[in-house]
Amino acid sequence: MKLNFKDILNLLLLPFLVYECNAICLSSAPDFYNTYSVDTLSHFLGGLTIAYSIYYILSLLEKKDWILVKKNYLKAGVIITATVTIAVWWEFYEFISDYFLGTLMQPSIADTMKDLCMGMLGAVVLSIVMIYRTKKPQSPNLN
User: Fold this and answer.
1) CA 26 to CA 22: how far, in whole Å?
2) Dihedral, CA atoms, 78, 79, 81, 82, nearest 10 degrees?
3) What is the pLDDT of residue 88?
4) What's the pLDDT at 47?
5) Contact, 105 vs 94, CB < 8 A?
6) What is the rounded CA–CA span in Å between residue 7 and residue 56?
7) How confident is the model at residue 2, as a pLDDT?
8) How far is CA 9 from CA 3, 46, 67, 86, 89, in A?
9) Cα torsion at 81, 85, 90, 93 (round to 10°)?
């Protein structure tokens, strides 16, 4: 499958913007970042945008007839599972950064668990919106 520029932009732009906004806020206004829990919002928005990217990938694969997911609940399960997997990888990245570079991205286990929950919550919100947005109307029973 060959991706065009629009597809790549749809896949990567939103997660990149969330990451960059988080990094800019952390480096330029650390007091604001800590006072208003920007980290929590960033993990929620990160989960939401990653889930959107996964939804977009599934749509591309369905358009190319590579896969067909008929049930929206199954599609939501795939989106949530993939998003949570990426959130776990992100937390590994934060741990490695703390361990080797001396950053303080994971100040506690509670913070790590909150980050994972917020990423999953973002995926759940997108999945609920996706399910209700693509729900097919019921045909009237004429019997």
Assistant:
1) 6
2) 110
3) 97
4) 96
5) yes
6) 8
7) 78
8) 10, 16, 22, 19, 22
9) 180
Token pair 């060959």 is at which residue?
Answer: 2
Residue 46 burial (CB < 10 Å; 0-12/13-18/19+)? buried
> Can you read off the two tokens belonging to residue 81?
């599972």
Structure tokens of 92? 């590994």
Task: Say what the pLDDT of residue 1 is.
Answer: 64
Give, as one character, the DSSP assignment of residue 140.
P
Q: What is the mean pLDDT of each run of 10 residues along the chain (143 residues)?
A: 82 93 88 85 96 93 88 93 96 94 89 95 95 68 55
Question: The tokens of 30 are what?
Answer: 């650390």
DSSP H helices, the chain, are 5-28, 30-35, 38-63, 72-101, 109-133
Joined tokens for residue 109: 């286990």
User: What's the pLDDT score for residue 112?
Assistant: 94
Q: How far apart, in Å, are the Cα atoms of 45 and each of 18, 39, 106, 117, 131?
A: 7, 10, 18, 12, 19
